[in-house]
Write a structure and sequence with these properties.
The protein is of the alpha/beta class. The chain contains 17 helices and 16 strands. It has 3 domains: 4-278, Aldolase class I (TIM Barrel), CATH 3.20.20.70; 296-385, no CATH class; 394-516, Alpha-isopropylmalate synthase LeuA, regulatory domain (Double Stranded RNA Binding Domain). The longest helix is centred in the last third of the chain and has 19 residues, at 498-516. Helix 1 (23-36) runs antiparallel to helix 11 (268-278), helix 5 packs parallel to helix 7 and helix 15 (375-385) crosses helix 17. The strands form 4 sheets. Strands 1-2-3-4-5-6-7-8 form an 8-stranded parallel β-barrel, surrounded by 8 helices. Strands 11-12-13 form a 3-stranded antiparallel beta sheet, covered by helices on one side. A 3-stranded antiparallel beta sheet has the order 14-15-16. It has helices spanning 23-36, 50-59, 86-93, 107-112, 118-134, 146-152, 154-167, 183-196, 213-222, 244-254, 268-278, 300-308, 335-344, 351-367, 375-385, 434-446, 498-516; strands spanning 4-7, 40-44, 68-74, 98-104, 138-144, 171-176, 202-206, 227-230, 296-297, 326-327, 394-405, 409-420, 423-431, 457-465, 476-484, 487-495.
Length: 522
């Protein structure tokens, strides 16, 4: 059995705080959602702004394989004819095969917001849908505030649905617009609606104000809803809409319903992260199924169990949704964490070495290091613990000068002395700051010997203050991300001296790249 997934990221999702999409952004996401395989893409409200109007003109030139594009709007105004109503005509002019019309289900909104009579609201619903059906449109009716309206006056709320049925709605969507309904209320009310309208296709549209968006959607599905609305990553007004990145795998993996074309569930993690990138949003690592931390294991007991049986602390195989399992290292780790990291980097490590490295990690974390997310530094500790390891370079000393010079402004200079292949190498370089100067001096010393170092680029540099109450004497933790083509790695350093912390992370980064980068596949 299948369900129809209706994505409203481009309309309801953009009502979330801090989310704004250009026309090109919306077209890119449209192609992405179509490739994912959703049934409907709600493109926007063509009567509300020029950008959405431009989108509907442009989207007609896209060749979509799976999805139908829907335009969203409201019923005609009180006392007006749909044929003469600007909002209804904007829906028609959008040129989409599907139109979604929102109407009022709650007497509170009818009398206090629309300032009209209950009878006129019913006419507005029926007449608007009937007019759009006469134009051969597929019509989806969103019953706004339905659950709140039902609790206020169940008879009237159901009469609004009857008006939509009489108007010819293809799907009637029950909306928890304020997001405050509990899942058991949703189950009971949807069950009642199902009995009252046995031959009507029902849908569900929920918000997350009570942290129930996904649960309420699944509750409605259990009572027969087969049209599911939501947004990628749960974007939306206030606390967001129901998150399709959780709903879709719940439907397929937990309820046994087909929500996407066969095999497309594996595209979900990529879709989630790509939409975040297009919207210029920092990904939420804690999102279920698609978040970076969704299958990350940190506790020593957990990792020890995972090494014995892969399902001991995971509810699904992460590859089913296109994600991956990760093992983290911290002061909470056990020997299994270290062995798992060693295996990931193709290192044969004896138990005794793993124990020593683990003890050293716990000691360093107490000093302010944060090894979680800095696997390359852990890998270097494991390499250095091997009896036959020979480092590609050894630091003898370094010096950094920062001066304010008249006529030149700030000047930063770094000198580095290394031992490489039993030879001493001494270099000087300037930079736009002390860490940049150290980086340039280190590279200047090593490039003649290791020319592939030129392919390594520092992509991120983060500083975290560990004990801020110590003010300028606080311990500083530095995290550095480095990239070589498609390969990326992260290293860490910590010290009460930010230059030393930066050097430790920088030296680990370069040494890891020279020793390990050709041995792994990221």
């Amino acid at each position: 059995m299948s369900v129809a997934v209706y994505d409203t990221t481009l309309r309801d999702g953009t009502q979330g705080e801090g989310i704004s999409l250009s026309v090109d952004d919306k077209l890119r996401i449209t192609r992405l959602l179509d490739d994912l395989g959703v049934a409907y893409i709600e493109g926007g409200w063509p009567g509300s702004n020029p950008k959405d109007y431009a989108y509907f003109q442009a989207v007609q030139h896209l060749s979509l394989r799976h999805a139908k594009v829907a335009a969203f709007g409201m019923t005609c105004r009180a006392g007006s004819d749909p044929a003469d109503d600007p909002n209804i005509q904007a829906l028609v002019d959008a040129g989409t095969p599907v139109v979604t019309v929102v109407g009022k289900s709650s007497l509170l909104h009818v009398t206090e917001v629309l300032s009209t009579t209950p009878e006129e609201n019913l006419r507005m619903i029926q007449a608007s849908l009937a007019y759009l059906k006469s134009l051969n449109k597929e019509v989806i009716y969103d019953a706004e505030h339905f659950f709140d309206g039902y609790k206020l006056d169940s008879e009237y709320a159901l009469s609004t649905l009857q008006a939509a049925v009489q108007g010819g709605a293809d799907v009637i969507v029950l909306c928890d617009t304020n997001g405050g309904t509990m899942y058991w209320e949703v189950e009971e009310i949807v069950r009642t609606v199902r009995q009252a309208l046995p031959n009507v296709e029902l849908g569900i549209h929920t918000h997350n104000d009570g942290e129930m968006g996904v649960a309420n959607t699944l509750a409605a599905v259990r009572q027969g809803a087969r049209h599911i609305q939501g947004t990628i990553n749960g974007y939306g007004e206030r606390c967001g809409n129901a998150n399709l990145c959780s709903i879709i795998p719940d439907l397929e993996l937990k309820l046994g319903l087909q929500a996407l074309p066969e095999g497309n569930l594996r595209k979900l993690t990529t879709a989630s992260r790509t939409v975040d990138a297009i919207a210029n949003r920092t990904p939420n690592n804690s999102l279920p199924y698609v978040g970076k931390s969704a299958f990350a294991h940190k506790g020593g007991i957990h990792v020890a169990a995972m090494r014995k049986h892969i399902q001991s602390y995971q509810h699904i195989d992460p590859s089913l949704v296109g994600n991956e399992m990760r093992f983290l290292v911290s002061d909470l780790s056990g020997r299994g964490n270290i062995l798992s990291i060693a295996e990931a980097f193709h290192l044969d490590t004896e138990d005794e070495i793993a124990r020593k490295v683990l003890a050293r990690i716990k000691e360093l974390e107490y000093q302010g290091f944060v090894f979680e997310g800095a696997d390359a530094s852990v890998a270097m500790m494991l390499h250095r613990a091997q009896p036959n390891y020979v480092a590609p370079f050894e630091l003898i000393d370094y010096m950094v000068l920062v001066e304010q010079r008249k006529g030149r402004g700030m000047v930063t200079e770094a000198t580095v002395k290394l031992r490489v292949n039993e030879q001493e190498v001494y270099t000087v370089a300037d930079g736009n700051g002390p860490v940049n100067a150290l980086d340039r001096a280190l590279r200047k010393a090593l490039l003649p010997i290791y020319p592939r170092l030129a392919e390594f680029s520092l992509t991120d540099y983060k500083v975290r203050i560990i004990d801020g109450e110590q003010a300028t004497g606080a311990t500083t933790c530095v995290l550095i991300d480095t990239q070589n083509g498609s390969q990326q790695w992260s290293t860490v350093g910590a010290s009460t001296n930010i230059i030393e912390a930066s050097w430790l992370a920088l030296a680990d980064s370069v040494e890891y790249g020279l020793v390990c980068v050709e041995k792994i596949s990221v």
